[in-house]
Sequence to fold (438 residues):
Amino acid sequence: MTSPLRLGIAGIGTVGAALIRLVQDKASMLEERCGRPVEITGVNARDKNKDRGISLEGMTWFDDPASLAKSDEIDVFVELMGGEDDPALSAVKDALNAGKHVVTANKALLAKHGVELAQLSESKGLLLNFEAAVAGGIPVIKVMRESLTANSVSRVFGIMNGTCNYILTRMEDEGLSFDACLADAQALGFAEADPTFDIEGNDTAHKLAILASLAFGTRIAPDAIYLEGISKITTDDIEAARDLGYRIKLLGVASRTSAGVESRVHPAMVPLGSPIAQIAGVTNAVSIEADTVGSLMMSGPGAGGDATASAVASDICDIAKSKPGHQHGPALGQPAVSLVPHERAEMRAHAGGYFIRLTVLDQPGTMASIATRMAEQEISLESIVQRRAKGESASELAPIILITHETTEAAIKTALKGIESDGRLKGEAQMIRIEKLG
Ligand SMILES: NC(=O)c1ccc[n+]([C@@H]2O[C@H](COP(=O)([O-])OP(=O)(O)OC[C@H]3O[C@@H](n4cnc5c(N)ncnc54)[C@H](OP(=O)(O)O)[C@@H]3O)[C@@H](O)[C@H]2O)c1
Fold:
């Protein structure tokens, strides 16, 4: 009989417990497809006595992840603890140094230390697999790393945070405020007690940093990503967007431009009829534009124990099928030493259309002064609409919506400063970028 592939799993939370259940329930199917049995021989978590609703029978309990990572009882170290530094970082290094393949779902760890870990795995001739780290159950890493080797990618973008998409979907469908939708997301377990990381875009940025590296052969650079979350989006924006044929989504976008790689996470207007606009609720989607294949879009569950465990299991199967002693494919699609520095295209050079929502004093000359400020920056307007004012001061205030033709971020920012200095604006201007699709 072929020797089993022995797994050591550190982290038995949402994903770890689902993976253990999956490996137990589908043991014979996995054996058939992997060509050898897959067994969990060691586990680790913080609390040995916690009831996890799964059987850990036959598995050795390790009190710390490092000793599991180095154990002679395992062939693969599966890191499902989370966290960008220790203990995940040192345990993964320990595992690689001890000759174990590694599977992780940890985007924070990879965004910060991915290049170093990829280099270490390559120097040891070991696999470092991380399908679950981006968009959970959607097999986007494999597609980018393996299926698109003959392509030059020009843009990769997507909806990669289910919490944000859930909030925006409910705001639109039910006319609820951002705060009300966030509270519901927390009550339903879609959002963390501290949701900042999700709603301010950091989680999407971690995933985008990994995708940008795979797409453009650059070193992973989370700090090079422009970041803007969804907490300032109002139902007024969502209504106005819909009336103008758009929907607002939190997008992560990385594209190749003449000035370098433009990587950004921000709310974006997408045409109502576009495929990405149809992605509702907690669902994720990733779209890739490449020269040979054209455009691809994959959508599906971006989180959840079972969907994420499905991706982790596929990484494990790839290791089970790999031949000992053979040179393995590099973790980031090309040797880590050959990755080039991420040359950042500045956001002020970003070119695109813009949605601007202004609340102005309803006085003669206001429209003309707005038009002048736009013209000074050579911004041409696709439309300018005065909407019906709501609330107590409705008679003195006028909400104005502008849609611009393609211009630069620098021009828009200067025009808005000018409008502000003219003293007719009430509150802050809202500016949402329109993503050009198709
Ligand atoms: N949840 C998802 O849908 C999802 C989707 C994609 C990727 N991921 C990634 O998958 C990883 C795991 O996520 P999760 O949702 O399963 O997390 P989780 O439910 O919070 O579980 C984390 C597990 O790690 C253990 N742990 C935490 N710190 C530890 C430490 N210092 N030493 C030993 N064990 C420690 C915890 O032990 P105790 O149980 O004893 O407290 C728990 O079992 C993260 O990197 C996450 O980003 C998650």
Remarks:
- DSSP finds 14 helices and 17 strands in the chain.
- Residues 11-16, 44-47, 50, 65, 80-82, 87, 105-107, 132, 136, 303-304, 308 surround NAP (CB under 6 Å).
